[in-house]
Amino acid sequence: MKHIILGTAGHVDHGKTALIKALTGTDTDRLKEEKARGITIELGFAQLALKNGQTIGIVDVPGHERFVKNMVAGAGGIDVVALIIAADEGIMPQTREHLHICQLLGIKNGLVALTKTDLVDEEWRDLVIEDVTDFLTGTFLEGAPIVPISSVTAEGIDEFLEALEQIIDKTEERADPGFFRLPIDRVFTMKGFGTVITGTLLSGHIRTGDAVEIMPLQRKAKIRGIQIHNKSSDEATAGQRTAMNLQGVGRDAIQRGGILCEPDTFEPSTRLDVSFEYLPTATRKLKNRTPVRFHTGTSEIISRIILLDRDEIEPGDRVYAQIILETPTITMAGDHYVIRSYSPIDTIGGGIILDPAVKKHKRFSDKTIADLTCLAGDPSSEKTMIILERAGLAGISSRALSVRTGMPLKMQHKLLEAMFSKRTALLLDREEHIVVSASLYATLQDKMVAELRTFHENFPLKEGCPKEELRIRIGEYIAPKLFNRALRDLEKGNKIFAEKEIVRIPEHRVNLAGDMEDLKNRILRLYRDAQLTVPTTKELMEQFPGKQNDTANVLTVMVNEGLLVKVNEDMYFYKDHLDVLTHDYRTFLTTKEQATPSTFRELTGLSRKYSIPLMEYFDKIKLTIRVGDHRILRERKDNAPSR
């Protein structure tokens, strides 16, 4: 069975609530103030069982101009609208405004109830029908049934129900993107139950016991109970009017305009890309940055509209724009919205959300307009590519991608698999399903190679660049997981060479020339002539005043070339001399079995200044191991029989 919501629309006192009572027996005016004033103020709800067995939910909206924002809050979940026009008054201001709102919200099916026909004669009724027919020309209700009806005499009730049944038969359920989302239109407390919310489930499904997130508060709660048409249920699905008892959150934390949704799926946003239609009935031009009232779901948010390719628009214009919200909300690409003027308050336009989580655009950008034109089109890989580019190198989860493209999650996954095969998208994290644009990834790799080349030009005497330094030099935050993957792929492609924490271009070699080559030869002679009584690093620097940086670089080059061995930060040795000492020390330990600082000094003739660092060095390279106050060969320790 389809889940369909019928909503009323029309001017105040045209008989919306009376018609619902005649159809269902339910008086949707439940407030004392509504009873006293005889008008609908808040949203009302009922259900209707049709002859074909179909049960539909009904949302009754207020018709008074002061309560249009309540009307918009109820109209967001409507599938079929009953436009109510009183025969004795005909088309009135809120008749026009409500029809505009329904059209802007994307409602495509409906009919007209010409009410209060018991108050007019047949000739007048026919004139009003003719007027209404002309009024509906060019709207989604053009050609829709116009049913004369009286809620007092019940005349036309059967005909209305028959016409409604035919319309519902041809009305398709809304496409379901798969994410649970329910805009909250009522919040109250029931004794013994606690916090209860009501709303029309826009998409997905929910079961008792499921976790939910209240947005934009980003607060978690749990579904304690579900009611549909005043009957308890274990589950609710898209298109149903439902009441839900929440566990873990108080009444004061929630209000109309909040959204109940699937946890960890939506991110609050204060900037939206939209297509915008400025109604032809508007009375003046609309300027860039005009303050407006933005309506989506059940919320009203003060906002500003940013025109992206002009400074003002005329009534009837259709443009692309950004909406900047004073407070955050959550939406999905493809959602409809309504714009009302800030003051005086009137419906002036609306449209469709193209990207619900955007950054500021540079105005008058041809690329921005081209991207928005693509986002306004049918679901495609091009649309996905635009969102991937906007997500940048941080990547985006497939769920968030589905929210920003408006595609159902299954369709999005299928499209991504095709993009992975074509290598136009990259799956960075399989567990969280984080996706990155392949073109941005290639650009990152190119930038890494370019930064390495620049590093070699600036520091020709350094063997390479530390990995972490290269990541920082890119100029924007790059997640370690993405950076390391790029390094691995570049190394596989022989575009870089990595050794431990250092990376370089494969063809990079440290070449000393001129004064630097002369400095190298002088340092080499100094260490070679010093035998094992080498200068400390500080003493070496003092011998080459003004050349401390060059000296340090040359030392690094000589170590990399295998001419010198770095024992610690303060001491380097000529490699050939150290090799001889290593051989002699090993022979000594093989014969004597152990060495102390004093016996090491006897072997080498070196003072404590050199002997202690050298003994620690031999420990570090795992020739020896310290046992108490003496050293033995590590191989002897490793081969000793266990007791």
Description:
The longest helix is centred in the C-terminal third of the chain and has 21 residues, at 438-458. The chain folds into five domains: 5-170, 3-Layer(aba) Sandwich (Rossmann fold), CATH 3.40.50; 181-261, Translation factors (Elongation Factor Tu (Ef-tu), domain 3, Beta Barrel), CATH 2.40.30.10; 269-372, Beta Barrel (Elongation Factor Tu (Ef-tu), domain 3); 373-435, Orthogonal Bundle (Arc Repressor Mutant, subunit A), CATH 1.10.10; 531-643, Winged helix-like DNA-binding domain superfamily/Winged helix DNA-binding domain (Arc Repressor Mutant, subunit A), CATH 1.10.10. With 643 residues, it is of the alpha+beta class.
User: Architecture of the largest domain, according to CATH?
Assistant: 3-Layer(aba) Sandwich
Poorly predicted sequence stretches spanning 5 or more consecutive residues: none
Radius of gyration: 38 Å
Number of domains: 5
Distance between the termini: 80 Å
Q: Characterize the biggest β-sheet.
A: 8 strands, antiparallel
CATH superfamily of the largest domain: P-loop containing nucleotide triphosphate hydrolases
Q: CATH topology of the largest domain, anyone?
A: Rossmann fold
CATH class category name of the largest domain: Alpha Beta
Coarse morphology: elongated
**Average pLDDT metric:** 89
Number of strands: 34
Task: Tell me what portion of residues adopts beta-strand conformation.
Answer: 25-35%
Helix share of residues?
25-40%
Class by helix and strand content?
alpha+beta
Q: Tally the helices.
A: 20
